[in-house]
Design goal:
Helix 3 packs across helix 4. It is built from ten helices and 17 strands.
Length: about 375
């Protein structure tokens, strides 16, 4: 096969607004390193990490909700998920589905032709469990908003599925994030799980994966999205911001508390959500789209014996588990819309607007 030398790509030139994302038609095709594979991208899913990195929202200088706009308060020392600067230009996009078309010198050539999805967590494969030696695909190295991308062969998971490339591109970031949250909270069939932001990519994954574990699931989302989340398996739905959360829970499931809160929203609703955790309950978090600064009464935390866990860097086994769930049909994609790469700005604007359920995907 004769490989292309230039490609179309969305290139991030710095932190800021959407104008920092440039569509280029003459970007060099990357060359795989010794342990890399070159992937011809079929589709790449969108996620909040892309938006937050572009805007600089991860900086401690930013205290407001995620908007997708640039922030004047971004500290240049900590603008990325890892609390450190990243280099530009950068191609973002962690959720690739595609075909391996070339391999590095240390990689078995039999991988050429395999269909894969990508694990976003870049690791020191001599010390893969070390959280201090991790990066993220599309952040610390170029990702998949392009016609071709490279990643370490251990980050390319072979998948056998009848799902389309666009459908498979909805899984990696959202579903591994959700499964990591549920694993850290030790969710099981005895639990009642409250999922905030239940209509988004991670939220819809949390609903399905918590149900897979046998838990009872209550979702929170805007009213117009309730039907679509119930179709994913949620046992009950609540408004995004009920006036009295405890009473709303009592009315819909017959009890005013839950054993687990899986939160990706944060913001002003945080205190009310913590107050409905039962004694010994668990709170797990992987996002704060409504705002990172919250009110917490420490007496609630310690007098009720609550456990709080943050969830970001995941063990490699989570990605492998998600592939197995997909192949066995235990989880399903929630594909809201597909956009061509040249309409990336339109796609990200729709993603930020959050009127969809599930995931938005771009195709090169």
């Amino acid at each position: 096969m004769t490989l292309a030398t230039i490609m179309n790509a969305i290139v991030l030139t710095g932190h800021g607004g959407m104008d920092k994302l440039e569509y280029r038609t003459n970007y060099p095709v990357p060359t795989p390193g010794d342990t890399d594979v070159l992937i011809k991208v079929g589709a790449c899913g969108m996620n909040n990490t892309d938006v937050n990195t572009r805007s600089g929202w991860y900086s401690k200088g930013v205290t407001e909700a995620t908007t997708g706009d640039g922030y004047d308060t971004v500290d240049s020392d900590d603008p990325s998920w890892g609390g450190a600067p990243i280099s530009f230009p950068r191609i973002q996009g962690a959720d690739v589905c595609g075909e391996i078309v070339a391999v590095g010198s240390d990689v078995d050539s039999s991988l050429i032709g395999e269909r894969v999805i990508t694990d976003g967590w870049l690791r020191d494969w001599n010390d893969p469990m070390n959280k201090d030696k991790t990066g993220y695909f599309g952040s610390e190295r170029d990702g998949g908003y392009a016609q071709y991308t490279v990643t370490d062969y251990r980050n390319a998971g072979i998948i056998h599925s009848e799902l389309t490339d666009a459908e498979l591109a909805t899984f990696s970031c959202s579903y591994t994030t959700a499964e990591g949250m549920l694993a850290r909270a030790n969710v099981n069939a005895d639990d009642v799980v409250l999922v905030t932001g239940a209509s988004g990519g991670v939220g819809s994954a949390l609903v399905q994966l918590a149900k897979r574990r046998g838990a009872k699931v209550v979702g929170m989302a805007s009213d117009e999205k309730h039907e679509s989340v119930l179709a994913l398996g949620a046992d009950a739905m609540l408004p995004r911001s009920p006036n009295n959360l405890s009473s709303a829970l009592k009315q819909c499931i017959g009890q005013s508390t839950v054993t687990v809160v899986a939160d990706i929203v944060g913001g002003k609703a945080f205190s009310a959500i913590i107050d409905v955790l039962s004694r010994g309950g668990r709170y797990t978090c992987s996002g704060a789209i409504a705002g990172p600064i919250v009110d917490l009464d420490l007496r609630t935390l310690y007098l009720r014996d609550l456990t709080f866990t943050g969830s970001t860097v995941l063990p490699p086994s989570i990605f492998k588990d998600i592939i197995s769930y997909i192949e066995r049909g235990e989880i399903k994609p929630v594909l809201s819309a597909t956009y061509p790469l040249e309409k990336f700005h339109e796609a990200q604007a729709a993603f930020i607007e959050k009127k969809h359920t599930g995931n938005i995907v771009v195709t090169p």
